[in-house]
Amino acid sequence: MAGERRPRSAHLFFEMGPLSRSRSRPPPADQSPGVGRGDAGYSRMVHCNDPASPQASELNYSDNSISTTKYTVANFVPKSLFEQFRRVANFFFLIVAFISFSPLAPYRAVSILLPLVVVVGATMAKEAVEDWQRKKQDIEVNNRKVKVYDGSFSFYQTEWKKLRVGDIVRVEKDEFFPADLLLLSTNHDDGTCYVETMNLDGETNLKRKQSLEVTSTLHNEDSFQNFKALINCEDPNEKLYSFIGILDYEGVQFPLNPKQILLRDSKLRNTQHVYGAVIFTGHDTKVMQNAMDPPSKRSNIERRMDKIIYVLFASLVFISSIGSVCFGIKTKNETSVGNYRWYLRPDNSSIYFDPNRAGLAAFFHFLTVLMLYGCLIPISLYISIEIVKVLQSIFIDHDLEMYCEDSDKPARARTSNLNEELGQVDTILSDKTGTLTCNSMEFVKCSIAGIAYGSRSCEMEKAASGIIQYELCHDSPSAFERHRSEGTSKKSTKGFSFRDDRLTNGQWVGEPNSEVIHKFFHVLAICNTAIPVVSKSDEILYEAESPDEAAFVTVARELGFEFYRRTQTSVSLHEFDPKIGRKVDRTYELLDTLEFSSARKRMSVIVRTESNQLLLFCKVAYRILSAEEYIPWHDDFVKIKNSVNADHDTIVDEVADRIERDLILLGATAVEDRLQQGVPECINKLAEAGIKIWILTGDKLETAVNIGFACQLLRKGMEQLVITLDTPNINALKKDGDKNALEKSLHENVSKQICEALSHVSKMKGSNVPFALIIDGDSLAFALSTSLEHSFLDLAVACASVICCRTSPKQKALVTRLVKWRTRKTTLAIGDGANDVGMLQEADIGVGISGVEGMQAVMSSDFAIAQFRFLERLLLVHGHWCYRRISAMFPKLHQDGVQNIFFSWPRILGWMINGVCSALIIYYFTTHAIFHQAFRQDGHVAAYEILGVTMYTCVVWTVNCQLAIYLSYFTWIQHCVIWGSIIFWYMFLVVYGSFPSTISTTAYWVFREACASSPLYWLVILLVVVSALLPYFMYSNFQKTFFPKYHDLIQRLQVKKE
To answer: Is residue 431 flagged as an active site residue?
Structure first.
């Protein structure tokens, strides 16, 4: 099927000789469903080259502008305020701020309103800055230029956002398509072009597109003058690989399929220009249908803090209620004999102390006490956390160990809201191409005439043998030295990692099977659809349909068979002729190209040599054809290729298969997409930390499995559970069954496979055999259905590794959502392309890799890194620091965050009990030590202002000293914060106490005049603080001695080493 990618796995052939293939004729496929005007799901009408007609205007389709921002100018304030007041503490203080303007308030309104405004305003400003970055990206995309036909013999440039459905556009080479287009024609006579869909599905291979023959003659401005057509097609949907529609042109209806569709954000390659009609615009395009609205992410700790606030608020209400009930009873008794308090004037009291309306007075007292005890709800904690998060983000941004020198890109914390989540990651969902791999295929080994060539180990061999030796994606001096040591001083070339002295530098001429070797590389140089391009340095580079095809022509060039020119009808080589001992230029007439298809799993070309010999080349195999056999076959092939039929692709494959027989096999090739530096080590460390890793990729199953072994996600001894619908029986069913019966049968098949796999895993539960689940995209679509998602997730969770293949961007997001909501644990998604954006947004944490696929993933991420290997440090070091503020880096410690040890409810309640104990000790010890005795040298006893200063000083000392005991080590930052806080308290007492009594009130000169000069003040502080610290100190030592945690054990080991 056109548009599918070629397999990247090694081509395995083992000996030279005739190879005969016989295929039975497959049954014809079903006709494509008809498209009728107004049919449900197929109601879109496109008036080509007439977007301003009354009929087109009535359809009122969306414009071509897009928006990926979270906010707009209109909704920023209300939506952002809603986000802020979702925090329970903020909402509580908002209510308190309103009440503080009433006479009930025991303090001035500004004292509560100002901190709230600062906290909410700072957070809103941060949200605005982050969203503005998204807005700037949208502006850049919407204002890109494209050429549009004006209806009068010319094209003019306009912005993408101004395109309308039905417009005719001209797209030049290496430009992105501005909308979903119907391909009308190209600069090639046959109407073909090549498209790179990296931004859509992450695949680097080029997709071949071909216009309808009826529109392929529209080559210039004049030809569009009288062009009018009507397209009736499917409504906007997210299916990237399907399209159903009809082109009504000159009274004839022509069926449309994905071959004629050019999707927005894909790029034109290997073609000078194309003409297309706009079908879907803006958010109706398939790439935007796969996109998801930017989510509002909150960390687990923040959500847990809300629950803590609920508990504290309930405690506050309880305390206030008890006090208010007692107050009401006491007030009601004011009129009784013996209970009369003359200073409250119950006979002429205000409403707040009226014994005749004691219930109302009690209610007002409740509101007053609620505000007075409001410090129990720690708004200052939110401020502290925001400051700490910003500092953590700065540490991440400036970590040189996560800086990539090759790309000059550091790590970036694009939001500070989720720092602590990094230390709690349970599952990582990763893209493959460009994330785990370098996105560049390399020719590694080959077998020719039964002899193996190539000395360098491939990634799978390294993984199997335990060799830990990984090179950078791009050549480095160390790599160059290694290449020299392997027998070549030649400059390393991208896509060429082949090393064997028997073949390089022309040495293959001396090999026993030199004729076979000559034919082998001759076939690689000719059997392709690549286009040679001369660089500025006069080096010939290749733009190919797939990276492996580029690797084939590159290795052929490096070994003496340089493909340097292609026309519509010929290919030219600068090749070494062993008979005359030098290079010669030869041109081969290109008669037919049998395109790659997923059914045949191969591509072939038929050429005529300069000596008039007919040859069929089929990737490391060939065949000599006779004119008597070729001419009738060619006539049939041309006739079938130009026909319009629902079974067009199947019939073309059958005709191609008739000629691709009796091939002489020359050998085998092995190419691989190299892993990025440090990927296996990183995955091992993350697995050691107890983190589960899933791979979600658009690649075919075999390719994903190979990469799984190379990066050690799949290992020897691991049992693979494969769920796939790519079987002969299923494929036959797809051709024969009706749509409804097919859907039901496929659903039952996937359900059966999942149930059998679950049963098998259950039986093997005690065997310690690790399982790996591998599922393809078609099966995944059914596995994610409501009836199967629970079983699928149960199976996936029971496996050590999970690989999902041929997944669409939306499926990646749905899988991520399923794992997040069903496991209720922190998920992290990592990817580098636009096809990963939905997955990054859906995960609790999205990490974008600033690779070769653009910046879409980075702009939609929460954190950005240059390579996958930096994920180890981001999670195990920064994640752990952000979660628990210690520096000991050890994988097992990550489980402290996953299991939420330091922020669990027992831990929280423990700290609350510690706080209550400390408060009781401070209160009773201080009051009994100070009251009822002389405090000053003149014999005066302590008043409440002295008691308040002494008690609060004890609180400040106790809190900071407990923090010092909790820490594992000190840096200058801890010293500044802890001891600086204590010093700042004393400075505040001095400065604030110096203000006039109208401002400082009870604090006026109380420290300098009364407390500082009193030995009792300092003695009480010493004794009370030591007493308050003693319970926590004893508990901490008891726990570390008899019930040590991971970090306690690591500290002991470090002490012993030192």
So the answer is: yes
